[in-house]
């Protein structure tokens, strides 16, 4: 597929890009190369190929959920500089 300079200018306008004449010429050439590469990929026969999500097989590692003892409220608040009603007490910062 041949990409024209006008097509590049149209896309650049839609993307709100200000391209110089040199950049437009370079972008035209680059887009032609990209589209040619995509066309070559489309020619590959993939009829006997299974779709994959990853190149290598990946398995999720699961573990059983276990209940472990936690700290008591008194232990958690033992190093708090200020506490009130079983909670941390902090200075008010919003007036």
Q: Helical stretch count?
A: 3
What is the share of helical residues?
A: 25-40%
Question: Based on DSSP secondary structure assignment, what is the total number of beta strands?
Answer: 2
Strand content: under 5%
Description:
With 95 residues, this protein is mostly helical. Helices cover 39% and strands 4% of the residues. The mean pLDDT is 91.
Q: TL;DR?
A:
39% of the residues lie in helices and 4% in strands. The chain has 95 residues and is mainly α.
Provide the fold topology.
Layout: H1 5-14, H2 21-42, H3 73-77, E1 83-84, E2 87-88
Antiparallel strand pairs: 1-2
Helix pairs in contact: 1-2
What are the salient characteristics of this protein?
single chain; 95 residues; mainly alpha; two-stranded antiparallel ribbon; 2 strands; 39% helix; elongated
